[in-house]
Amino acid sequence: MTRLAPQVKMKRSATKVSTGVAMLAVAAGVLSVGAPASADSGGGCRRASQNTAVSVCISVRSGTWNPLWADFYVDGTSQGESRTKTYINVSCSNGAFYGHFAGNWDISGTHSPQWSYSKPCSSGYGYTHTVFYNSSGNFIYSADSPNQYW
After folding, report:
1. 66-117: per-residue pLDDT in tens?
2. Of 117, 114, 122, the residue nearest 40 (C-alpha)
């Protein structure tokens, strides 16, 4: 009898595993219904031509399709960069253009907050546009990330 008990226990756990695998397969099928035909490409960070210590970025989280995430890094403020306004701009394949104001940031460290924006169309591209100002609120320059395509 001692040998029968482990066999029954193994049989039960095998049933639980196969049920779990079936449930995962169903869930994966449901999740893939809304997935795009092709994966995102591009994105990442680009150094500003006016100050190479500044990088403006756009991305999607690893393993996800939506939303777009915008942020930037400031390794130095040689031109007096003090404040920013950040936008996530999207151009859709159907010709629509969306400009989304993401947020303001008073530069107080090396990394901005991350702002998100849900993609408003099924195919197109987006990029982060950041405008830099000095402490008096005067425009210094603007910089864009590379394009994130989907």
Report:
1. 999 999 999 999 999 999 999 999 999 999 999 999 999 999 989 999 999 9
2. 122
What's the rounded Cα separation, in Å, for the pair 45 and 112? 13
Best CA proximity match to 55, nearest among 63, 44, 64, 39:
44
Give the N- to C-terminal CA distance of the chain in Å, as an integer. Answer: 61
Backbone phi, then psi, for 65, in 5-degree steps?
-110, -25
- Judge contact between 84 and 104, C-beta under 8 A: yes
pTM above 0.85, yes or no: no
DSSP bridge partners of 8:
none
All residues at 6 or more sequence positions from 71 whose CB lies less than 8 Å from its CB, including other chains: 57, 111, 112, 113, 114, 115, 128
Tokens of 19: 């049920």
Q: Which of 96, 86, 14 shows the shortest CA–CA distance to 54?
A: 86
